[in-house]
Amino acid sequence: MQRSKVLIVGGYGEVGRQIAHILLDRHADLEIVLGGRSPGKAAAFESERVHTAVVDTNAEDPLQHAGEHISLIISAVNDLQDKLLLAAVRRKIPFIDVTRWTELFEQASAKLRNVELHAPVVLSSGWMAGTASLFAMLHADSLENVAVDIHALYSLRDKAGPDSTAYMDRMTIPFHITEAGKSRLVHPMTDPVKVQFPNGYKAKCYRLDTPDHVTLLKASHMDTASFRITFDSKASTSLLVGLVNSGIWKMISGKRFRSFRQRLLYNPGTGSAHHVLIHLKGRDHNGRPAERRIAITDPLGQTHLTALGAAVQAEKLLLMPENEPLAPGVYYPEDLPDSRMDTAAIMDFFKQYGVLVSY
After folding, report:
1. C-alpha to C-alpha distance for 193 and 27, rounded to whole angstroms
2. How many Å separate Cα 298 from the centre of its chain?
3. Sorted alphabetically, which Gene3D superfamilies does this protein's record hold (predicted)?
4. Quick check: pTM over 0.85?
5. Nearest Cα to 176, choosing from 188, 166, 192?
6. Left if phi > 0, otherwise alpha if psi is -120 to 50, otherwise beta: which for 114?
7. Alpha carbon of residue 308 to chain centroid
8. What digits encode the pLDDT tens for the residues 319-332?
9. 129-164 pLDDT, tens per residue?
């Protein structure tokens, strides 16, 4: 019997490498292909089941040299022109993407509406590969008229790849959120909310544009979705807020000042815990007000939590029987639960890899 083969594009980076380790750990019959522009940069794996391939997302056909019999593609690198996505669609290969900010998410969604799909496409680009929105949905399934507030504490000392800085160039672009079913325009790094995270850290969190604002609201019982962020350096957070709201950040946008912007928010270190706090407000089945708080901590950091978010989505596709594949279509991270991966199985998955969840 031929092994299933998973291609991880961006497999040489921090997130891609960790996705590979998780999947290898869980599936003894799985073959992994690490795809990127420079195979020589691939991380060393002590496994005969790991190979490399040239995959350039800027090429007209990024999958030209990726090999045959690929069962699943996971994209952990920016696909700015959707060339990788559309190459997978043409080949009828299931596809998971975990890297799109909202504009690219909506760009991909528009293109997918105009093509015939023969395999599932999972746009799992919310916070930490959709982990935050997935947890929000799991804990809101018995509520109605739900308002979801997601708060993230981002460590400037954590491991991170260059694609993680893409949000810096979107700090001056307003975006829409939905509150009580009504859309309104907001600006990044505004509307602060004071939050205490699981580690006791207290700080103001500020608005940031993520696909969670879009995907969560596709569920009929969700009325409001909001995402805010803070950094574990209050000085850096205050400086960024001041630069954005004064208009200076917009003035220093572009390539000339990119190194300055990176020095402020991109100084990857050896790693630090990542914390997410989710606040749900809604009504229970009796119509009474109900609130829930879910605190998530990954001691191994945001890249590890992102890798787990990608891997749990991949797990569902890999576990589908060949004679009952997931129907072609566009899916979001919150669509994960089903009869094969219920809430308990999903929670066990994250806890098995050290993620701490409290209420």
Report:
1. 42
2. 14
3. NAD(P)-binding Rossmann-like Domain
4. yes
5. 188
6. alpha
7. 10
8. 888 888 899 999 99
9. 999 999 999 999 899 999 999 999 998 876 665 555
